[in-house]
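Ticket #378: bound-state structure for coenzyme A.
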Amino acid sequence: MTNVDVKYGLAGVMADDTAVSKVMPEINSLTYRGYKVQDLATQCRFEEVAYLIWNGELPNQAQLDAFNAAEKKERGISADVLSVMRLFNKNAHPMDTLRTAVSFLGQEDATTDDSSPEGLMAKSIRMYAKLPEIVAADFRLRNGKEPIAPTKVLAFSENFFHMCFGKVPEPEIIKCFDISMTLYAEHSFNASTFTARTIASSTSDIYSAVTGAIGSLKGPLHGGANEAVMHMLTEVGSPEVAKDWMLDALATKKKIMGFGHRVYRSGDSRVPTMTEAYKKMVDVIGTDEAKKYWDMSRILDETMVGEKGIYPNLDFPAGPAYYLMGFEIPMFTPIFVVSRITGWTAHVMEQLANNKLVRPLSHYVGPPQRPVTVLADR
Ligand code: COA
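RESOLUTION: The complex was predicted; output attached.
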C-alpha cells in the first residue's frame, strides 16, 4: 500500500543524544554516566546514584553530605498537599493520586517556570525529597491511617519504610529496596522518559514533564508490569502448579508479565542483581510464604526461558520483592516513580540544555483532500 518507512513505536529511531545512561544489549550491560548499574547497585547507596545521575560524577563525602542535607531540607509536604490528598478517591489507583499530587506540587511552587539549570536542579531535589512522603501518605490514608511525617534522622530508603510502616526493617530488606531504587532510576529513552523530554521540549515546566511521565509509566506495558507480575504470582498460587500454569498460558498465547523487553533480547542486565537481593531477603524473612514466592518465580522463569527463550525483565524479581517487603501491589509503580524521578529530571535538564522541539511526522492514511459537500438532510 505504501513504500513509506514508518517506524512504528519509534522502534530503532535515534531521537537525540544523551550522556545520562547507555543500554548495551549486545553485551548485556547498562551504565549510568559510564558506571555499570550492577556495580552502583551493590557498592553505592541510592543517594550517591541520584547525585551521579544529576551531576555526572559520583560524590565525595563533602558533596554527598551537602546533597543529603539539601534533600532532607526539602522533606515534608505542605498542609495543602495533605488536605488535597485526603480528598482523593480511596479506590483510585495510587498512580492517579501521585500524578495529581505532583501536579499540585507544581502549582504551589512560586518559581515553577524557572527552568534555569539551578532552578531545574532545585525542583528535581524537591520532587525527589517529597515523592516518597506522598506515596507513603497515600498508602496510609487509603488504609484509614494517619500519615507519618518524615524524619531527618534516617537515610532515604529507611525514611520511606518509616513513613509507610512506622518502623525500619532488617538491613537486608533495606538493602534490597535500595538496590531496586538504583536499578529503576534510569533507562535511556523509554516511554515515560521520552514523554518527559517531549513535554520539556515545548519549554513547559519540569512538574508538567514529570506529571506526564507518571501517566506514561502507569501503563502495564511499561512500569505497571511490576504490579502485573504480582497479580500473576497470586493467580498461579503455588510452586507445584507453576510449570503447568506457564505452559497453559503460553499455549493460549497469553502475554506473560515481567518477561520480554523492547531493547534487551537476551536478558535484562538489571535482573541478576535484583534477583540476588530478592533471594537474600527471602532467606532473611524465612517464612513459608516468602519461600513459596521465590520457588514460583524460579519455576516460571525457567519454564519461560526454556519454552520461548524470552527472559525476565527487572519487574519480574522486583514485584514479589516489594510484596514481601509489605507493600500493597498498587504501590509498586509509585515506588518505581520514587526512583525514576532522578532519571526523568536528568533527561529534562539535558533536553533543555540543547533543546529542539520534539515534532515527528505522521504517515497519513485517511481520505485524500476533498471538497466539503453539505448533506441535504443535515
Ligand atoms: N509473553 C509472551 N510472549 C511474549 C512476551 C511476553 N511477555 N514478550 C514478547 N513476547 C513474544 C511476542 O508475542 C512476539 O511473539 P510473535 O513473534 O510470535 O508475535 C515476540 O515475543 C516478540 O515480541 P514483541 O511484541 O515484538 O516485543 P516488543 O519489543 O514489542 O515488546 C514488551 C516488548 C516489553 C512490550 C513485551 O515483551 C511485553 O509486553 N512484556 C510484558 C510486559 C512487561 O513485562 N513490560 C515491562 C517491560 S520492562
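RESOLUTION NOTES: Residues 239 and 296 are 5 Å apart (CA to CA).
TICKET STATUS: resolved
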